[in-house]
Design a protein that fits this description.
Helix content: 25-40%
Strand order of the largest sheet: 14-17-18-13-12-20-21
Distance between the termini: 62 Å
Structural class: alpha/beta
Largest sheet: 7 strands, mixed
Oligomer: single chain
């Protein structure tokens, strides 16, 4: 595997599909691991092919890291942490570096957006405006926050002082998903790095390219060697090695509930490392008869299932509709989904792109077939599209006459498949909404303020949106109840995952 070369930011943002494709042809893609400030091959020399879902073409040979690479990265992270070069740096100085890191991410926004789109298929317009923009914001916000988080003094007797202080936890392993590779990485890196930890980032093997590229950008920003290491590879190899490692202090993860449970087992089998998990979802999107704006609700319902090709943990995949507005709302949503048909991801006008790979396509199509067999009525979509491109595309799909016991209503599909479930009254809506192993997010549409509050309080979800869907920013925590995980990303609450709380008592 040749050594990675550093790329400079593109001179100007492309405005057309042809211009983006021209830049893609010139793009130098790095597939190496990044350990102690340097790009390197996996110790074994093994690689795997990174295939673009846009057209099926090979993007790069990527280092397939394993136990030996995990050992090297953890040793580097531990050495950098113990040296104090980052962990004992004054918070205001770490803040400056984090802001510089965010600035450089934005300076390379075209390159990073292009890598993200080629790697996992999302439209270039969203790769740039959503993923890169919010990734930079996560780094900047966390950096800005770190010198504003105060320690405490306990209320003590006159002859003693009780101090409550935060300290960085140490070595953090962050395993992030393929659907928002750069953004999810920065949700972890922001508070983890700002708190003074050293981090090993393990991107998904389905979309590793922006994480690999970001490592050099972090170094350029002033993150010392060893403080951020990146190990591409598979979950059952390098991911497992990190989860079982005796010198990893904290493991943070975003991904499926199945893998989240296994990581908890690995933590128990090793050193009882802290494990923070953001896992699956099957979010209820509830529309009452007194919805203040059915058109807006339909637009939100379409976006909540079709954005990012439905590959979103908070996707409003269960649409619970009160009987009085059911037919009208379904008709409006079907009409809205016409504007979410997939197109070429490098076309700036495209709003829905390719799903991440052939395996995910087959999973989605399998659930669509199961919905038909179990008695749901296919109202639109349900088929693969644009197969002639060599890429992986699927039509946004709506099933009606779904009951909450069907697999399409109970299991996370991670694709643009919407299940419409009819209900009568608030109590039934709440019962159906809570009848899930998940508890990540929910939406509620009503003109009744009391009903909105009562429903939101009753739903066992970490996030509830009233008369819109998928709101919030870096100031609000992100995470769920039940098997959707534990802990929170974003907001000041995220710092709890990356710090230890110490009580120090001084006799006067």
């Amino acid at each position: 595997m040749p050594a990675c070369k550093q790329m400079r930011g593109f001179m100007s943002t492309p405005q057309t599909r042809q211009q983006w494709q021209q830049l893609a042809a010139q793009l130098q893609i790095c597939g190496q691991a990044f350990i102690h400030g340097e790009y390197c091959a996996a110790v074994s020399g093994e690689t795997f092919d990174c295939i673009s879902p846009v057209d099926g073409n090979k993007l790069a040979a990527v280092a397939s890291c394993d136990l030996a690479d995990a050992e090297a990265a953890v040793a580097s992270a531990r050495a950098s942490f113990e040296s104090g070069v980052w962990s004992r740096m004054a918070p205001v100085e770490r803040k400056k570096v984090m802001i510089r890191f965010a600035d450089l991410l934005e300076a390379h926004s075209d390159e990073l957006a292009l890598l993200e789109t080629l790697d996992m298929g999302k439209p270039i317009r969203f790769s740039k405006s959503v993923d890169v923009t919010n990734a930079a914001r996560a780094l900047r916000w966390s950096g800005e926050a770190v010198d504003k988080i105060y320690d405490e003094i306990a209320p003590t007797a006159d002859n003693e002082i009780g101090m409550i202080t935060r300290e960085p936890v140490g070595v953090v392993a962050a395993i992030v998903p393929w659907n928002f590779p750069l953004l999810m990485a920065c949700w972890k890196l922001g508070p983890a790095l700002a708190s003074g930890n050293s981090v090993i980032l393990k991107p998904s093997e389905k979309s590793p390219l922006t994480a690999i590229r970001m490592a050099a950008i972090a170094l350029e920003a002033g993150i010392p060697p060893g403080v951020l290491n990146v190990l591409p590879g598979f979950g059952h190899t390098v991911g497992k090695a990190l989860a079982l490692h005796m010198d990893v202090d904290t493991l943070v993860f975003t991904g499926s509930t199945k893998i989240a449970k296994q990581l908890m087992v690995y933590a128990g089998q090793s050193n009882m490392k802290r494990v923070w998990l953001e896992a699956g979802g099957k979010s209820p999107h509830i529309v009452f008869n007194d919805c203040p704006d059915l058109k807006a609700a339909a637009q939100a319902a379409a976006s909540a299932i079709a954005f990012n090709q439905g590959e979103v943990c908070t996707a409003g995949s269960r649409l619970l509709v009160e009987s009085g507005v059911k037919e009208q709302l379904i008709a409006l949503i079907i009409d809205e989904l016409k504007s979410w048909q997939p197109g070429h991801p490098l076309d700036p006008d495209t709003v829905s792109g390719a799903v991440v790979d052939q395996q995910q396509l087959q999973t989605i199509l399998g659930y669509i077939e199961a919905g038909k067999q179990q008695g749901a009525v296919l109202a639109c979509g349900g088929e693969q599209l644009m197969a002639e491109t060599g890429g992986v595309y699927v039509a946004p799909t709506l099933f009606r006459e779904v009951n909450n016991q069907m697999s399409i209503a109970r299991e996370e599909i991670f694709g643009p498949v919407l299940s419409v479930i009819e209900f009568e009254g608030m109590e039934q809506a709440i019962a159906i909404g809570n009848d899930s192993i998940y508890g990540l997010a929910a939406g509620v549409w009503t003109s009744d303020l009391s009903k909105a509050h009562r429903t939101a309080k009753a739903l066992r979800s970490g996030m509830v949106w009233i008369n819109h869907y998928d709101g919030g920013d870096m100031t609000a925590p992100f995470g769920g109840y039940k098997q959707s995980g534990n802990g929170r990303d974003k907001s000041l609450h995220a710092f709890d995952k990356y710090t230890e709380i110490k009580a120090t008592w001084i006799a006067i």
